[in-house]
């Protein structure tokens, strides 16, 4: 038997009970029993896995979902981990929750200069501007690479992983607006899209995480224009537009 903390969060109106079947289905076909135990600090999901195929199930969950390191001792420099953006008042760094919570919650951080280099081609944009351009709001999932671990100062510095940069590059090159949704299941999003008859404006809905998704708008559809239509049906959900044209204009990445 082993207890794991998965790198998926539950927050808002949802509880872990809403996703018991979701995680049990991941181990379908394996001779294991998976039990959802509850929430770790900051909303990470804890599960218990036991049975003949326990080791196989653990490796599968690590690959498909990701496992929280829980404490600093389990972190490795240059490893890639999937975290979540945290709220911040700082102007110099973006805090990221990467699942370190023992003996106390500890966040990693991406320095502003790193974000400027990775997302703004070195342009000296303010942190708030970069956050708005790339929808880096609380609970947005990000794949980050561990750059520095200072155990004595309990400090973790990270940068965006190549896989995350590839995602943003794809978003920019596709040129379609996206509406980022934080705090709803994909089933709920698709149901409301159908109920509001928005299929004519929407190319697809892509899942970024358990409660995080992005609606890909069709060419000519403004993501910001969808917010009132979806917002009244999703009053507890955070909605933010990602607009490639705006990003490219501000960072002057391409000739428009």
How would you describe this protein?
This protein is α+β, with helices and mostly antiparallel strands. It is 29% helix and 31% strand. The protein has helices at 20-26, 54-64, 112-119, 127-134, 162-174, 186-195, 223-231, 244-251; strands spanning 2-9, 33-39, 44-50, 80-85, 93-100, 106-111, 141-150, 155-160, 178-182, 202-207, 212-217, 238-242. A 5-stranded antiparallel sheet has the order 6-5-4-7-8. Strands 10-11-9-12 form a 4-stranded antiparallel sheet, sandwiched between helices. A hairpin with a 4-residue loop joins strand 7 and strand 8. Helix 5 crosses helix 8. It is globular.
CATH topology of the largest domain: OB fold (Dihydrolipoamide Acetyltransferase, E2P)
Helix/strand/pairing category: alpha+beta
Query: How many domains in all?
Result: 3
Helix content: 25-40%
Low-confidence regions: none
Global geometry: globular
Strand content: 25-35%
Q: What would you say the CATH architecture of the largest domain is?
A: Beta Barrel
CATH superfamily of the largest domain: Nucleic acid-binding proteins
Protein traits:
Alpha-Beta Plaits; OB fold (Dihydrolipoamide Acetyltransferase, E2P); 29% helix; TATA-Binding Protein; 256 residues; 12 strands; 4-stranded antiparallel β-sheet; 3 domains; alpha+beta; 5-stranded antiparallel β-sheet; globular
In short:
This protein is α+β, with helices and mostly antiparallel strands and 256 residues long. It is built from eight helices and twelve strands.
């Amino acid at each position: 038997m082993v207890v794991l903390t998965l790198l998926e969060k539950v927050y808002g109106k949802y509880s872990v009970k809403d996703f018991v079947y979701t995680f049990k289905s991941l181990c379908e076909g394996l001779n294991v029993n998976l039990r959802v135990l509850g929430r770790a600090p900051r909303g990470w999901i804890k599960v218990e896995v036991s049975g003949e195929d326990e080791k196989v199930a653990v490796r599968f969950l690590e690959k498909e979902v990701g496992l929280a390191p829980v404490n600093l001792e389990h972190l490795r420099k240059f490893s890639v981990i999937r975290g979540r953006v945290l709220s911040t008042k700082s102007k110099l760094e973006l805090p990221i929750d990467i699942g370190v919570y023992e003996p106390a919650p500890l966040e990693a951080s991406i320095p502003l200069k790193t974000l400027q280099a990775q997302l703004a081609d070195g342009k000296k944009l303010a942190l708030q501007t970069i956050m708005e351009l790339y929808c880096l709001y609380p609970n947005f999932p990000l794949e980050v690479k561990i750059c520095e671990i200072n155990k004595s100062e309990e400090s973790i510095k990270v940068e965006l992983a190549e896989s995350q940069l590839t995602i943003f590059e794809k978003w920019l090159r596709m040129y379609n607006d996206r509406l980022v949704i934080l705090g709803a299941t994909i089933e709920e999003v698709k149901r409301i899209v159908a109920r509001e008859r928005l299929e004519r404006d929407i190319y697809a809905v892509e899942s970024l995480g358990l409660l995080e998704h992005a609606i890909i708008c069709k060419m000519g559809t403004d993501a910001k224009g969808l917010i009132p239509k979806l917002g009244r049906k999703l009053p507890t959900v955070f909605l933010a537009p990602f607009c490639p044209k705006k990003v490219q204009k501000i960072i002057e990445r391409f000739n428009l």
